[in-house]
């Protein structure tokens, strides 16, 4: 279920009360069936409930038994880069030199379509084996890299949100397009892929430093024309980056305003990071119904800073969890919450397991206005779900008792877990990954 949109001024003024509000809310709005059943038909969830009740209603159903395991909604990763699959885990740099030294070289290789196709498969397989069924994905400047990803996702009916990266300055010449080319290629990709099957398009200017005002304006025109496409970019991740943006755009009133002036701040805008925001930017993001992608493993890895989720909540800004691979250090959303928890500990405001779970399922889906399709196990949504085996090795079997509460198990797995906890990943009613058989749908 979704959290209510607004709180009273009294609640807003009192932070600890605030936290309790959330704690209460998340607990009340998750339904847990200890002996449950999920009914799927033609790729859609038909029903959910207590096993004994459900089984009576569907006497002809074929039954798969997952006793001792969990059935959870497929996980949503709200910001990551598929071309960085192979440049994950590179030593030593913070954002701007990391881009120069590792990221841009890796992205240049995507001029080769065959390379793009092969990495798209590896990438999707990594998502599947970690239980992620929807990703918000940056491709490269090459339209063909975006084609390769949508095409691979379409093979398994996976709901991917993606876009061609647009950059027309401050990066290697081979990675640059122009305002006109960015607009034309993005428009063509929208026509070809947006709302075709389960694909959705995201206009993707990489970040303000690599786009001219003319390019942002060209993309802003598309954002106005295609109201239901997504917009994804980066925002206020690193202090040197922000100083650079201020010098490149002296007429804007800060980083967010660079995008805002070009109609790129609206619902279905997803901004990566937002670590060093000014108060007026928090307010504006809330007003605009935009979303911040909180990428804790990346923020720690690049030394970018500690995301302030209390500020987001206080300003009614949607937050969704994300890996940000390859600055992020894992594809696993449980582990990503584990690092979000550690970040929040450093801020003295621990994020509860319920909130963490919400930020990778229903909370993300509601932020993106996709909760009628993904993010939950409600009837009439698409059958994207995962089977989790909590006690998958000696240590987890020791730590996690058989009748432990949901939040305890979820938390322990978020700190200890890895892809071994994911037993199966189902997409559109089809099993696309099975750990036991080490079988991926994209061979
Ligand atoms: N800012 C601009 N590009 C990138 C990127 O690829 N990764 C991250 N983490 N931040 C960025
Ligand atoms: Zn990113």
UniProtKB/TrEMBL annotation:
Residues 36-61 form the Aminodeoxyfutalosine deaminase/Imidazolonepropionase-like composite domain. The keyword Metal-binding applies. Pfam families: Amidohydro_1, HUTI_composite_bact. Pathway: Purine metabolism; guanine degradation; xanthine from guanine: step 1/1. Residues 70-430 form the Amidohydrolase-related domain. One of its GO terms (biological process) is guanine catabolic process. It catalyses: guanine + H2O + H(+) = xanthine + NH4(+). One of its GO terms (molecular function) is zinc ion binding. The keyword Zinc applies. It is an enzyme of class 3 (hydrolase). It comes from the Bacteria. Catalyzes the hydrolytic deamination of guanine, producing xanthine and ammonia. This is Guanine deaminase. It comes from Alteromonas genovensis.
């Amino acid at each position: 279920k979704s959290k209510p949109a607004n709180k009273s001024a009294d609640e807003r003024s009192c932070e600890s009360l605030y936290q309790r509000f959330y704690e209460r809310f998340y607990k009340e709005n998750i339904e847990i069936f200890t002996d449950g059943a999920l009914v799927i038909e033609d790729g859609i969830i038909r029903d959910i409930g207590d096993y004994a009740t459900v089984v009576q209603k569907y006497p002809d159903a074929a039954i798969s038994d997952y006793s001792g395991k969990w059935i959870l909604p497929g996980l949503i990763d709200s910001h990551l880069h598929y071309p960085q699959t192979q440049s994950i885990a590179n030593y030593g740099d913070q954002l701007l030199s990391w881009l120069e030294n590792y990221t841009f070289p890796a992205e240049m290789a995507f001029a080769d379509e065959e390379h793009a196709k092969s990495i798209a498969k590896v990438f999707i397989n990594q998502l599947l084996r970690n239980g992620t069924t929807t990703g918000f994905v940056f491709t490269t400047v090459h339209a063909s890299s975006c084609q390769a990803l949508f095409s691979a996702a379409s093979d398994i009916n996976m709901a991917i949100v993606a876009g061609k990266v647009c950059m027309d300055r401050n990066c290697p010449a081979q990675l640059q397009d122009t305002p006109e080319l960015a607009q034309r290629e993005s428009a063509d990709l929208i026509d070809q892929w947006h709302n075709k099957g389960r694909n959705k398009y995201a206009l993707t200017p990489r970040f303000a430093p690599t786009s001219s005002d003319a390019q942002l304006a060209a993309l802003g025109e598309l954002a106005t024309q295609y109201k239901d496409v997504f917009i994804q970019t980066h925002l206020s991740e690193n202090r040197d980056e922000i100083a650079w943006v201020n010098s490149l755009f002296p007429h804007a009133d800060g980083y967010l305003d660079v995008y805002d002036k070009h109609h790129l701040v609206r619902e279905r805008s997803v901004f990566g990071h937002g670590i060093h925001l000014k108060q007026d930017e928090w307010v504006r993001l809330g007003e605009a119904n935009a979303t911040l992608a909180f990428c804790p493993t990346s923020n720690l890895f690049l030394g970018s800073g500690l995301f302030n989720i209390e500020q987001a909540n206080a300003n009614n800004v949607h937050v969704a969890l994300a890996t940000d691979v390859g600055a992020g250090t894992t594809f696993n959303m449980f582990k990503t919450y584990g690092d979000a928890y550690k970040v929040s500990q450093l801020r003295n405001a621990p994020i509860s397991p319920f909130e963490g779970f919400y930020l990778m399922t229903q909370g993300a889906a509601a932020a993106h206005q996709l909760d009628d399709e993904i993010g939950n196990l409600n009837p009439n949504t698409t059958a994207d779900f995962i089977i989790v085996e909590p006690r998958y090795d000696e240590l987890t079997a020791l730590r996690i008792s058989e009748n432990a509460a949901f939040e305890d198990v979820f938390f322990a797995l978020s700190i200890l877990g890895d892809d071994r906890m994911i037993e199966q990943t189902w997409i559109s009613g089809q099993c696309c990954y099975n750990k036991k058989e080490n079988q991926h749908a994209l061979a």
